[in-house]
Design goal:
Helices cover about 40% and strands about 25% of the residues. The protein is α+β, with helices and mostly antiparallel strands and about 250 residues long.
Length: about 250
């Protein structure tokens, strides 16, 4: 079930598409929408987008497809995954509420370089290429913020490459756990994460067996506690300390 009615002002438009009012969304402080300065552009953003709900494990787009839309996560989680020539998968990122994806390939007019798939039941908003370009052309400040976002993505990628090259298994797993703490639980001293061992392995570029051993070591140190598919953080400060040794 999609628990959206408490978070959004929901209506039904043409063709059965859902309408979510971004001004009423509890995640809009983390969304790019909050960076829009122009009230005119905000109205365009709110009314030019489409919104739909997807079930767990639904494909949003596949690697190699021609981009038609760019997307924002409204609720739920989306994995961005790259597959190697021998079939091995790596999660490049996990998008949570407020995060955008698919805009890079749309802007550079190339095919998608990864696959986007829902991890849990998810609601996404999306713009067609034509509507997206319309907004970009009409608001210079908006376009400038998008450029800043691109720069941030490049910086994050550089950090990720360094992490893959220099961090040991424990540091990689700890970094993945810290990055997976969502906006919902970020103020909780003992956040509970819903993340599979296989997902951590794909994020870190490790084997599942290595991830399981690393999590066991962290549990032995009383830093985390595992409960089925969930991981409870017992000492966030110790996790951050391990991560800061790398930073």
């Amino acid at each position: 079930m999609y628990n959206l009615k408490y978070r959004f002002n929901i209506g039904r438009g043409k063709k059965g598409l859902m309408f979510l009012d971004c001004d009423k969304c509890t995640s809009n402080g983390l969304c790019f929408y909050s960076k829009i300065k122009s009230s005119v552009t905000k109205r365009k953003w709110n009314h030019l987008k489409n919104t739909k709900t997807l079930k767990k494990d639904e494909i949003i787009f596949n690697e190699g497809e021609t981009p038609k839309n760019f997307y924002i996560v409204c609720s739920g989680k989306v994995s961005i995954t790259k597959t190697s020539t021998n079939g091995e998968k790596m999660i490049l990122s996990i998008r949570t509420p407020g995060h955008m994806f698919g805009y890079g390939c749309l802007c550079k007019e190339g095919n998608y370089i990864a696959t986007a798939k829902t991890i849990i039941n998810t609601a996404i908003s999306y713009f067609s290429k034509e509507k997206w370009i319309e907004i970009l052309k009409s608001d210079f400040d908006f376009s400038l913020e998008i450029m800043k976002l691109f720069c941030t993505e490049i910086s994050n990628l550089q950090t990720r490459l360094c992490m893959m090259a220099w961090q040991n298994a424990e540091e990689k797993v700890v970094n993945a756990l810290i990055n997976h703490i969502s906006f919902v639980t970020q103020n909780d001293p003992n956040p509970i994460l819903s993340i599979k061992r296989s997902e951590i392995a794909e994020i870190c570029g490790l084997r599942v067996e290595t991830v399981v051993r690393t999590l066991q070591k962290l549990e032995d140190k009383k830093i985390i506690k595992r409960d089925g598919q969930k991981i409870k953080i017992l000492s966030l400060n110790k996790l951050i300390e391990i991560n800061s040794n790398y930073l």
